[in-house]
């Protein structure tokens, strides 16, 4: 079911004033506007946000942002020079219906994986490029952070990186620099919002030897350190049919989620992939079907 965030719950007069104060603080309304909205809301029975939109004094996005702040549920900017990409729906429009399955996946992982694993690292894997790995990894990291978990997303696809574009962060230094000793953690770990416990390590400059880099002991040591700093570490991996990187990364993480794309993933290839992951010692904790 798609929730209507504006009409999510009935609001008291005090709650209306809170929403109005947030919109005023952000420069979307002045005090006269807020009084007019409150009067109109009382006359029509509408909630404050609905009345404000009906009067065309604010946008739907303005109200969602204010509600997010009221419930301590930060929303990232969308588009433009500083905003995240359209695909990062969970970050800028968490009430979209497409985000609910991601929350369900988060719940299942919390029960079946996070509560049992000493190392909270999870590789997101699939057979082919274009299966939706990066989309799932990014949005899943967002919903974990929104639940209050200190979450780190690592773009370990150093062949075709994408997380820096999704989150609109600098990619000049990233995982490749960490693994070659050209940077340290504080140089490459990006925090997305002061009130959201989400951090991203982009892939960085594409190296000539990504497979060799992730096989180095330093990568395993890095994951051990990060697992002590974060409640959840999500790793975006390359396509399994193109390189052995995904198996290596899953083995380093200790656990993996396998993505299956409708009308594309072949059963025989999927079976071979899951067997290969198991042989590395990685535990397949879930399989997700996607049509992205």
Polypeptide structure, described:
This protein is α/β, with parallel strands linked by helices and 292 residues long. 46% of the residues lie in helices and 14% in strands. The longest helix is centred in the middle third of the chain and has 15 residues.
Tell me what the CATH architecture of the largest domain is: 3-Layer(aba) Sandwich
Shape by Cα distribution: elongated
Mean pLDDT: 87
The CATH superfamily of the largest domain is: P-loop containing nucleotide triphosphate hydrolases
Tally the structural domains.
2
Indicate the low-confidence ranges by residue numbers.
1-17
Number of helices: 14
Helix content: 40-55%
CATH class group of the largest domain: Alpha Beta
How widely separated are the two ends?
Answer: 20 Å
Structural class: alpha/beta
* Arrangement of strands in the largest sheet: 3-4-2-5-1-6-7
Number of DSSP-assigned strands: 7
Task: Report the portion of residues in β strands.
Answer: 5-15%
**Whole-number radius of gyration?**
21 Å
Please provide the ordered H/E string of secondary-structure elements: HHHHHHEHEHHHEEHHEHEHE
Main sheet summary: 7 strands, mixed
What is the name of the CATH topology of the largest domain?
Rossmann fold
Notable characteristics:
292 residues, Rossmann fold, single chain, alpha/beta, 2 domains
Short description:
This protein is an alpha/beta fold and 292 residues long. The chain has 2 domains: 5-70, no CATH class; 89-290, P-loop containing nucleotide triphosphate hydrolases (Rossmann fold).
